[in-house]
């Protein structure tokens, strides 16, 4: 199932991703929470990552999946 309209760079659910891979620092500035929160999610296996040297990158589709999985409503 394709979940992305690549021609526009926009997710079909309305979340716009400017790039495919995000560093931990990118996620802090784009989404919020602290650097250590995102690192702990990676280390605990809750968020898949790509390692390049010492730097961790998270794919935009994994970020979207993480957000959907952790969505709550009152």
Could you please describe the fold and organization of this structure?
- It is a single chain.
- This protein is of the alpha+beta class and 74 residues long.
- It has a single domain, classed as Arc Repressor Mutant, subunit A, CATH 1.10.10.
- Strands 3-5-4 form a three-stranded antiparallel β-sheet. It has a two-stranded antiparallel ribbon with strand order 1-2.
- A hairpin with a 4-residue loop joins strand 1 and strand 2.
- The termini are far apart.
- The N terminus is likely disordered.
List keywords for this structure.
74 residues; alpha+beta; Arc Repressor Mutant, subunit A; 3-stranded antiparallel sheet; 5 strands; 35% helix
List the helices and strands and how they pair.
Elements: E1 4-5, E2 10-11, E3 21-23, H1 24-30, H2 35-43, E4 50-52, E5 55-59, H3 60-69
Antiparallel strand pairs: 1-2, 3-5, 4-5
Helix content: 25-40%
**Order of strands side by side in the largest beta sheet?**
3-5-4
User: What is the molecular shape?
Assistant: globular
Q: SS-based structural class?
A: alpha+beta
* Whole-angstrom Rg: 13 Å
């Amino acid at each position: 199932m394709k979940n992305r309209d690549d021609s526009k760079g926009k997710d079909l659910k309305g979340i716009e991703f400017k790039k495919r891979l995000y560093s931990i620092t990118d996620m802090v500035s784009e989404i919020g929470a602290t650097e250590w929160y995102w690192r702990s999610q990676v280390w605990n296996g809750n968020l898949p990552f790509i390692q390049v040297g010492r730097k961790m990158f998270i794919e935009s589709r994994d970020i979207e999946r993480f957000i959907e999985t952790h969505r709550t409503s009152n």
